[in-house]
Amino acid sequence: MAAFVGLCQVTLTVPGSTSLKDKRRVLRSIVDRLRQRYALAVAEVGSQDAWQRADIAFACVSAEPSRCEAILAECVRWLETRSDIELVHVETEIL
């Protein structure tokens, strides 16, 4: 049986952030929610020292590539509903 890995990397801004502490608070909320609700592996992968910018990546595993695509798309839609961030770039890949 084959396994597929869905990867998504997003670049986002946190316009209301005035410090790294503000940004980390927002990111912690996002990371915790993605992990709990969607059972994903999630990490901040770039822009760690920027106050208003963040790069996060998340991944899922499934026996069907369409399931990976659906999970990642649902996560991106959820991110788009958040009023405290703005998505700048989204890149997905199924391996």
From TrEMBL:
InterPro entries reported for this sequence: DUF503, TT1725-like_sf
Domain of life: Bacteria
Protein's name in the database: DUF503 domain-containing protein
SUPFAM superfamilies: Hypothetical protein TT1725
